[in-house]
Design brief:
Number of domains: 2
Strand content: 25-35%
CATH class of the largest domain: Alpha Beta
Number of strands: 14
CATH architecture of the largest domain: 2-Layer Sandwich
Structural class: alpha+beta
Number of helices: 6
Bound molecules: uridine-5'-diphosphate
Length: 254
């Protein structure tokens, strides 16, 4: 018997119908993709670690008043979240030049930016997630000006908080991507942080050595990918007790 109805399967996660109306179960896979799906692979234990890391970060953000879709972690690879209407934008926050920004503007990776830069991409794999401006976003109706105001204000709070949190464990938050959703309660709508925050969606560099502790290790074939994700969890103080042994997860859904 199928455990529950699958709603959506993405590159790194699967969404199932939740136990109550208005909820979903978010299942974290070990699958990794990069360069718009051109590179594919598996990072053993990634799903377990990202489930924990995202739980931890969303909980901490919730504690400072950032509304999120996160309800609670259910098991090693699953968390209960509120069902939201995803705003089809990737909000990218940059503190230090890296990746796409370095390429576009010829700025060496690692250059501190004069101020935090927020960019938007339209979530559409077929189009390769093109970068868009507020003009496109409002003209095409993906979000209103009010939605954008709320998203930017939340984004800057999230960046300030996470920058400090990671710095406290010797990690520089170079850049990251977040997504927002609309949470409806009757006619009331609230914009909440959705999706995940994990080394899949952040660039995290060791403060002392500049060593990369994120998905760039997979993208750029740097090796020790699993170890880097584990080190992030270890420094956050949330490495599963059984250590790497615990990271395989149920076979049924892999
Ligand atoms: N990012 C992401 N998903 C995407 C694109 C980017 O999570 O589809 C994250 C990426 O991990 C990095 C930040 O957003 O932390 C900025 O990524 P960039 O635009 O430099 O993209 P790249 O071309 O390097 O993936």
């Amino acid at each position: 018997m199928a455990r529950r109805k699958q709603i959506y399967e993405g590159k790194a996660k699967v969404l199932f119908e939740g136990p109550e109306p208005g909820t979903l179960v978010q299942y974290f896979k070990d699958d990794a993709t990069a360069f718009n799906n051109k590179k594919r692979g598996t990072i053993t234990g990634k799903g377990v670690l990202n489930n924990r890391i995202s739980e931890y970060l969303m909980t901490k953000l919730g504690e400072i008043g950032v509304p999120t879709h996160f309800v609670r972690r259910l098991n090693m690879r699953e968390q209960l979240v509120r069902e939201v209407e995803i705003i089809p934008l990737e909000v990218v926050v940059r503190n230090v030049a890296a990746g796409g920004l370095s390429q576009r503007f010829g700025i060496p990776e690692g250059t501190a930016l004069p101020r935090t830069i927020v960019e938007y991409c339209y979530k559409n794999d077929e189009l390769g997630d093109p970068m868009v401006s507020e003009e496109h976003i409002t003209a095409f109706g993906w979000a209103t000006i009010q939605d954008l105001d709320e998203m930017i204000s939340l984004t800057l709070r999230i960046n300030d908080f996470l920058t400090g949190l990671f710095l406290g464990i010797g990690i520089r938050l170079v850049d990251f991507k977040i997504e927002f959703g609309r949470l409806w309660t009757g006619d009331d709508m609230q914009i909440v942080l959705a999706d995940e925050i994990s080394p899949d969606s952040c660039r995290l560099w060791d403060v002392k050595t500049n060593e990369k502790m994120d998905k760039d290790r997979f993208r750029r074939d740097l090796g020790n990918v699993e170890e880097a994700y584990q080190e992030v969890a270890r420094r956050l103080g949330i490495l599963p007790e059984g250590g790497p042994r615990d990271l395989k997860g149920p076979n049924t859904l892999q």
